[in-house]
Amino acid sequence: MFHAVIPTGGLADDRSSQGEMSALLVLLASASTRPRYAFMALSLIAEVANAEGEAGPFIRRNGKQFTLRDWLCDGLAPMGGRDPRRAALAERVRDDLTLEGRLPTDPHAAALAVDEELRERVRTSGKTNLSRAVSELVAAGLLRRYYAGYAVDHANRGGQRHAVYVLQGLARCLLPRSGRAAMPKKAPPAPRQGELHFV
Predict the structure, then answer these.
(1) What is the pLDDT of residues 19-76, one digit of tens each?
(2) Which site from 30, 36, 139, 197 is most exposed, i.e. has the minimal number of CB atoms within 10 Å?
(3) pLDDT of residue 177
């Protein structure tokens, strides 16, 4: 009997037969411990990045300004909304506010206070998850990270400096096509009647 030869590399290794998005997903699957989370983070960064793929250090939405990391954590937070641990955390927050005497007696105001405190705690824990994911993306060549803010740009965080993320490599396929294309040169103004041009 004749047996077909099975390629050892598999189809996933042949990037020439894949589109950019497929190749990005293959890379994320091998480079990230949480590829779905990493892909969502990259997608959010692409949403607010400029034509060069750079996002941050601040994002303005609905008249409010956020640091890029806070905005990303808030954007990723709903993905854990159905996690039983999130419900347990909400109960802990309510208990803590009650013990501290900070829970309003009005039910509506109490719900808002719990939501605000829960958002802050989720944002704090989310920064740890985001930092881990970003480190993996930097190692995979999909992101470049530096810190900017008060006084001067700086390679390290601190001193009122905040993270800036720059999409690189395959991650640039998440940018809009118009953002990836070279900006067309502005056409020179049409000469006005009676205007003389000297050469």
Answers:
(1) 899 999 999 999 999 999 999 999 999 999 999 999 999 999 889 999 999 999 888 8
(2) 197
(3) 77
pTM score: 0.67
Write out the DSSP string of the chain.
---PPPPSS-GGG-GGGS-HHHHHHHHHHHH-SSHHHHHHHHHHHHHH--TTSEE-SEEEETTEEEEHHHHHHHHHGGGGTT-HHHHHHHHHHHHHHHHTT-S-SSHHHHHHHHHHHHHHHHHHHHHHHHHHHHHHHHHTTSEEEEEEESSS-BSSSBTTEEEEEEE-GGGGGGS-HHHHSPPPPPPPPPPPTT-----
End-to-end CA gap in the chain: 81
What is the per-residue pLDDT across 128-152, written as a single tens digit (0 to 9) for each? 889 999 999 999 999 999 988 665 5
> Which candidate, 140, 161, 147, 165, places its Cα nearest to that of 72?
165
Whether 18 shows a pLDDT value over 60: the answer reads yes
What is the spatial distance between Cα 126 and Cα 121, in angstroms, rounded to a whole number? 8
Within 13 Å of residue 72, how many CA atoms lie on the same side as its CB? 33
